[in-house]
Amino acid sequence: MIIVAGAAPRVEKHLLKTEKHCFHCNNTSRWVLQKTRHFITLFFLPVAPYKTDYLMYCPICGNTIKLNKEDYEQKIRFEAEST
Ligand SMILES: [Zn+2]
Asked: pTM above the 0.85 mark?
């Protein structure tokens, strides 16, 4: 019997409603909030998450800021409330 195991990320993206200035490319735009959940897969099906990354990046130059879970959730809540 052959067991196919691996790892796969699942990406969730949210575009910020408020604009943010990027000090790297000097543009002001709506940054992207991204949550990446890394899963262990078995026969290409995700079975268990083992790591989650939270980050925010400039859509123009890709300048990335790492966030912790609390900051990420706070920003998601803020975005949901400002609709
Ligand atoms: Zn930028």
From this structure: no
Per-residue pLDDT of 34-69, as tens digits, reads 999 999 999 989 999 999 999 999 999 999 999 999
Residue 81 DSSP code: H
CA 46 – ligand 1 centroid, Å: 33
How many Å lie between the centroid of ligand 1 and the Cα of residue 69?
A: 23
Go through 38-51 and write b for each residue having 16 or more CB atoms within 10 A of its CB, e for each that does not.
bbeeeeeebeeeee
Taking the centre of ligand 1 as the mean of its atom positions, its distance from the CA of residue 53, in whole angstroms, is 20
Task: Identify the residue with better confidence: 79 or 60.
Answer: 60
Q: Residue 56 C-alpha to ligand 1 middle, in angstroms? A: 11
